[in-house]
Write a sequence for this structure.
């Protein structure tokens, strides 16, 4: 199965919660990690590390790399760059997802925050500009829909290795199993 890494551009300290939610969305929907470009935020890293240590799996965070350098690095490794933007090809009305899948390559998914650099839309950066509908909404919602469709919903039934906490789904109420350390 192709691997996906999420590149978050435009994180600001006052957006910490939103970037945390981008990371949570990425992890829950089967991405392998998050690249936070241009800035560093150690609090965010600690939050995600704690979450991974409790809820399991492996999810990396890299940060501080200038976005151009990050894009060049991942392109050089043969990864395909998908930029999520309301201005792109509509995932529902075009065959853009099929064209991405046909490449059978790993993917870097770019999500922005405020207005992203114009270069993101060019073929120098984005192999695909994908719109999750052509109305503006949010980096979290667009990422969730893209990953859910890309992985055909399978991410929602995955289990995470080495989890200390695991939810048992209930019709009513909350049940969480706490696994003791082995
Ligand atoms: C709150 S939006 C910012 C929009 C910004 N005002 C602009 O014009 O680029 C933040 C990010 O959410 C993602 N996003 C928002 N709506 C989207 C959509 N309809 N399709 C795909 N991505 C979307 C994009 O990655 C965007 O950079």
């Amino acid at each position: 199965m192709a691997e996906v890494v999420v590149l978050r551009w435009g994180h600001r300290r006052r957006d910490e919660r939103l970037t945390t939610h981008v990371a949570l969305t990425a992890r829950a929907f089967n991405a392998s990690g998050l690249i936070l470009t241009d800035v560093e935020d150690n609090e965010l890293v600690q939050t995600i590390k704690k979450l991974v240590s409790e809820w399991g799996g492996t999810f990396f965070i890299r940060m501080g790399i200038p976005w151009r350098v990050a894009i060049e690095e991942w392109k050089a490794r043969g990864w395909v760059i998908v930029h999520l933007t309301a201005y792109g090809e509509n995932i529902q009305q075009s065959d853009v997802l099929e064209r991405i899948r046909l490449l059978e390559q790993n993917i870097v998914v770019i999500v922005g925050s405020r207005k992203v650099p114009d270069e993101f839309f060019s073929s120098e950066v984005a192999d695909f500009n994908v719109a999750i509908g052509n109305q503006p909404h949010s980096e979290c919602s667009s990422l969730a829909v893209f990953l859910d469709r890309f992985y055909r919903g399978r991410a929602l039934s995955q289990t995470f290795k080495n989890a200390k906490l695991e939810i048992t789904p209930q019709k009513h109420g909350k049940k969480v199993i706490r696994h003791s350390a082995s």
